[in-house]
Write a structure and sequence with these properties.
alpha/beta; 34% helix
Length: 539
C-alpha cells in the first residue's frame, strides 16, 4: 500500500500550510496538489496499518471530506502480517460506504461518522453533531430537485437499528436517517459519544439548525454513553491571540446566553479520573483542554470499544482534539508508531485538519488561531500524566486501569502539592464512583459562578509567531518547579519536536501576512456566511 522509505521534508509542510492558508479543501475541486497530499497520507498510514479505502470522488458522500476515506483495520507495525499474505478485510466496504451514504443526512452538513484513529483494535471517530429537522428536510428536498427526483434519504430503516414507532413522530425522515446513523455507530463498535458543543442545539436567526444526541426527544441514543463536555468555540481563540498567544489565565465566559449545555459525565466514566469536574467553569484554557484530553484518554484506555468526538460542524474543535489524541498516542508509541516527528506533523495537518474541511484562511482572517493553539499546546501534555503507558506496578495493582488526575504530581511529594495548592483546589466535593455501576447514567454538574480574567490584551505581530506562546509553553508542575524527574523522556522529546517543527514552519509561512480582519465585504460574503452557518451551502 505504500513505500516504507517515504519521507517528508520541511518544505513539503511549508507548501501544505501555504496552500492551507489560501484555500478551503473541497473534494469536488480535484486539484492535483490535494491528490498528492492524499497519496502521501495513504503512504504514511500504510507504515503501520492495513486499511481499505472508501471513495468519495467529487464529494458524493461529503463535499468537505477526503476523496479517499482511509478505514484502518489492522495494526501492522512490529508484526509479520505482511509476510502472512493477504488478510481478510474486517468490513464489507461496499456495505459500509452505502451505510455512510444512507446516514449522511443525520448529521450537520452531511458530515457523517468516520473512523480516523485505530488503537488496540478500537476506532476513534469524528463527525458533526446531529442535524435538526429543517436541515434534514431541506437537504433532502434540494437533493431531490437537483438529482432529477432522487431522494438523498434511505428508502427504509437501516437493518439492525432499533427505531421508535413513527406513528407518534411528525418528522418520520428523522427516524430514518438517525436509525442509519445508529447502525453506522454500531458497525464501528462505538459505545461512547463525546459532545463538545456549548449548546444543546444550535440556534441561528431563531431557527434550530442542529440538534445533539443528548436532547434527542425519542431517546434513540440512550444505548450509548453520552458525554457532554462543553468547550469554547473557535471564536474564543481570538481572545487567545489578543492575549499574545498566551492561554494562561484566559477563562471562557460561561454566563453568555447561548450557553445552555452543562458538563455531564456518566459515573462509569468519571471513575477513570481523579479530576474535580465541578470546577470546570473556573478552569482557564490550558486546564480545561488538559482535563478534557485526560478524560478522552481515560475512555480510550478503560474501554474495549470505540469513541466518537464531535462539536457542531466537526471542523474546528473536533480536529483539535483528534490531532491532540493522535500526536499524544503517537508519542506513547500506540498509534502511527513508525512515523517520525515531521511525518506525524504532516499526517495530522493534512488528514485531520485540511482534508476534513478546516477553513484556516477564514480563521486567520478573524484572528481565531485554534490550529496554532493546538500545536503549541503539545508542550502542556509532555508529562506522564497524559501517557496511556503506565510503569510496571506491584503484582496486586499491575492490572489497574490508568487514573488521570487534574494535577501533574509526578515530580513532587504529596506534601509539596498540598503546600502549593490554592484553598479552592483543596475543598473538593466528593465524586460518586460506585464500583459496581456500569450503566451510563449521566450526572450533570450544574452551573458554577464564573471567574473572568483581568483584561490584558496584546497586539502581536504575525511575524513573531516563532516566539509566541513560549511564556506558557512549559508550565511548572504543581510543586512550583520544573518536572525535574521527568527530564527529557522520549515522550517529552517527541512532543516538543513536533511543536517546535510546527511553530518554525508556521512562522515562516505566515510571516508578513496581515490576516486579521482582512476578510472581504459585500453582499456576496454576507450571504455566503449566512448560508454556510445555516448549513445549506456546499450541498
Amino acid at each position: 500500500m505504500g513505500d516504507k522509505s517515504e519521507s517528508i521534508k520541511e518544505d513539503e509542510i511549508a507548501k501544505l500550510l501555504d496552500f492551507f492558508t489560501k484555500n478551503v479543501y473541497r473534494a469536488k475541486d480535484g486539484s492535483s496538489f490535494c491528490e498528492g497530499i492524499e497519496r502521501k497520507c495513504q503512504a504514511l498510514f500504510a507504515r503501520d496499518y492495513q486499511f481499505t479505502v472508501i471513495h468519495n470522488g467529487n464529494g458524493e458522500l461529503c463535499s468537505h471530506y477526503p476523496t479517499k476515506l482511509i478505514i484502518q483495520e489492522y495494526e501492522t507495525s512490529g508484526q509479520e502480517i505482511h509476510q502472512k499474505g493477504v488478510v481478510e478485510p474486517i468490513y464489507d466496504i461496499a456495505k459500509l460506504r452505502d451505510l455512510m451514504f444512507r446516514s449522511r443526512l443525520a448529521r450537520c452538513r452531511g458530515r457523517f461518522v468516520v473512523p480516523v484513529i485505530l488503537i488496540d483494535g478500537k476506532h476513534i471517530c469524528r463527525s458533526a453533531t446531529l442535524a435538526g429537522g429543517p436541515e434534514i428536510y431541506g437537504r433532502n428536498s434540494l437533493s431531490y430537485i437537483f438529482s432529477g427526483g432522487s431522494s438523498a434519504a434511505p428508502d427504509e430503516y437501516s437493518e439492525g437499528a432499533d427505531v421508535p414507532n413513527t406513528s407518534t413522530n411528525d418528522w418520520p425522515l428523522i427516524d430514518t436517517v438517525r436509525a442509519a446513523d445508529i447502525t453506522l455507530l454500531n458497525t464501528l463498535s462505538v459505545t461512547h459519544i463525546c459532545d463538545l458543543m456549548l449548546e444543546n442545539k444550535k440556534v441561528k436567526f431563531g431557527l434550530n439548525v442542529s440538534s445533539s444526541e443528548k436532547i434527542d426527544k425519542l431517546r434513540r441514543y440512550d444505548d450509548f454513553c453520552l458525554i457532554s463536555t462543553p468547550y469554547p468555540g473557535c471564536e474564543f481563540f481570538k481572545d487567545y491571540r489578543d492575549n499574545g498567544f498566551n492561554a494562561k489565565g484566559i477563562t471562557f465566559d460561561w454566563t453568555q446566553q447561548f450557553v445552555d449545555a452543562s458538563l455531564s459525565i456518566p459515573n462509569s466514566v468519571v471513575s477513570g479520573t481523579t479530576i474535580d469536574w465541578h470546577m470546570y467553569r473556573h478552569w482557564d484554557l490550558i486546564k480545561i483542554t488538559q482535563n478534557y484530553l485526560k478524560l478522552l484518554l481515560s475512555i480510550i484506555v478503560r474501554n474495549n470499544a470505540g469513541l466518537l468526538i464531535h462539536c457542531i460542524s466537526g471542523w474546528d474543535r473536533t480536529p483539535m482534539y483528534i490531532s491532540l489524541l493522535r500526536v499524544s498516542l503517537w508519542a506513547d508509541g500506540k498509534v502511527n508508531a513508525s512515523l517520525s516527528a515531521i511525518e506525524i506533523l504532516y499526517l495530522t495537518l493534512s488528514y485531520d485538519w485540511l482534508l476534513f474541511g478546516h477553513n484556516l484562511s477564514d480563521r486567520l482572517s478573524k484572528g481565531e488561531d485554534i490550529i496554532f493553539f493546538c500545536f503549541n499546546f503539545l508542550r502542556h501534555i509532555t508529562s506522564a500524566e497524559f501517557s496511556v503507558i503506565r510503569p510496571h506496578r506491584t503484582s496486586q495493582n499491575s492490572h489497574e486501569p490508568a487514573q488521570f488526575s487534574d494535577q501533574d504530581t509526578s515530580s513532587c511529594t504529596a506534601q509539596d502539592a498540598l503546600r502549593n495548592s490554592s484553598p479552592s483546589s483543596l475543598q473538593r466535593e466528593q465524586v460518586d464512583r460506585s464500583s459496581g455501576n456500569i450503566q451510563c447514567n449521566s450526572r450533570s454538574l450544574g452551573p458554577d459562578s464564573v471567574f473572568l480574567p483581568d483584561a490584558n490584551t496584546a497586539d502581536v505581530a504575525v511575524a513573531d509567531l516563532l516566539h509566541l506562546g513560549l511564556e506558557e509553553a512549559t508550565p511548572p508542575s504543581v510543586c512550583g518547579r520544573s518536572d525535574v524527574h521527568e527530564g527529557h523522556s522520549p515522550r517529552k522529546q517527541k512532543l516538543e519536536e513536533v511543536s517546535n517543527l510546527f511553530r518554525k514552519i508556521y512562522s515562516s509561512v505566515v510571516r508578513g501576512r496581515d490576516y486579521a480582519d482582512s476578510g472581504g465585504g459585500g453582499i456576496t460574503n454576507v450571504l455566503d456566511s449566512i448560508s454556510s452557518k445555516i448549513g445549506f451551502k456546499n450541498l
